[in-house]
Structure formats: structure tokens, C-alpha cells
Q: What sequence folds into this?
């Protein structure tokens, strides 16, 4: 069980990377091409890290049965995804995802098709994956793991600054649609102009 800040940061980065990989595979299959699904430039989807760390904090000591935890994780993930969509659209005036073409969606921000898998994956990660990663983490000496986590935090902060800077300087597509591919293309072009 996670019990300190370093362990929570390890879980955050682990799930941010796994979430990014999952998005890349899912959308790569769906769109027949690879598109960086993350908000950041690097291989990191922070919404997955935030989600799993929060799920861990809320439910790792829960005395509820599996069904209750499953339902609460669905409610939490749905609220998190909806809030992230609203916040990102507010700041950047564009959408990274849109579910308007799917049944049982709420304003195109969340839908039933993602709610159930997030509930199942959240439970599986909480009960099976977290213990595995924390056991693996404990095999690394604290002095080394601390340096790795500090390095990851610094890289994430740099990535965040660059990402926000690049995105604020772009003319981003507006409207209710999934603009991830177009955003990625424009970001890549701007970075190539700046640094290429």
C-alpha cells in the first residue's frame, strides 16, 4: 500500500505512462495512425496518474465490497474526465476528446463506453497492479528512487511549461469535436520551426 509522497509520485508517473500507452494503442487502432493523445509533449497523460493516485488514496483502505468500490470508481473517473475536459477547453478553447458520436454521453465529455472500462481498470489497478508496482519500487534503494522521482518531476515541469507555451501560441481548432490529431500536428510543426 502506498504510504508516502514518493510512492504516490511513483504511482502517478507509472499510471500516466500506462494511460498514455493505452490511449496510443486504442486510438492508433481506431484511427489507423499514431497520435500523441496526451496534453504534454512527452509520454504522459496526467489524468490517468491523478485518477489512480486519488483512487489509491480514497480506496486502498476501504472496507466496502468490490461492487461498491467499482461503482465509486466509475463515479469518480466520470467526474474527473468531465472536469478535465471542461478545464482544458476553458483554458485552450479546444477539445482533446469528444464522445458526441457515442450513445449515453454527457455533453460529449464522458460516455458509458468509457465509464465501465475505467471502473474495471481502476479496480484491477487498485487491487492487483498497485501492489506489484509498489513491491517493485521497494527493490530500488531509496536514494536512487528519490533521485529518479525528482528527475521525473523536473522533466514534467519543463514539459508542462513548453506545452503550455506552445499551445498558447497556436491557433487551435474550436468546436465540439475531437481535435487531438490536429493539435498534435500543429504542435509538432511549431516545435520543428522553433527548434528544427
A:
Amino acid at each position: 500500500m502506498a504510504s508516502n509522497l514518493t510512492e504516490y509520485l511513483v504511482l502517478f508517473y507509472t499510471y500516466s505512462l500506462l494511460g498514455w500507452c493505452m490511449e496510443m494503442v486504442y486510438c492508433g487502432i481506431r484511427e489507423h495512425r499514431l497520435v500523441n493523445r496526451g496534453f504534454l509533449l512527452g509520454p504522459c497523460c496526467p489524468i490517468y496518474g491523478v485518477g489512480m493516485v486519488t483512487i489509491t488514496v480514497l480506496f486502498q483502505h476501504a472496507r466496502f465490497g468490490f461492487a461498491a468500490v467499482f461503482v465509486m470508481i466509475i463515479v469518480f473517473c466520470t467526474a474527473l474526465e468531465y472536469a478535465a475536459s471542461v478545464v482544458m477547453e476553458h483554458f485552450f478553447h479546444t477539445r482533446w476528446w469528444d464522445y458526441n458520436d457515442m450513445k449515453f454521453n454527457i455533453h460529449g465529455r464522458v460516455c458509458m463506453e468509457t465509464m465501465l472500462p475505467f471502473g474495471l481498470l481502476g479496480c484491477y489497478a487498485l487491487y492487483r497492479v498497485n501492489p506489484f508496482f509498489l513491491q517493485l519500487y521497494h527493490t530500488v534503494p531509496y536514494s536512487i528512487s528519490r533521485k529518479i522521482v525528482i528527475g521525473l518531476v523536473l522533466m514534467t515541469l519543463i514539459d508542462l511549461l513548453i506545452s503550455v507555451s506552445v499551445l498558447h501560441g497556436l491557433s487551435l481548432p474550436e468546436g465540439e469535436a475531437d481535435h487531438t490529431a490536429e493539435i498534435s500536428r500543429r504542435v509538432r510543426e511549431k516545435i520543428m520551426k522553433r527548434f528544427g
Summary: The mean pLDDT is 87. The CA atoms of residues 2 and 46 lie 18 Å apart.
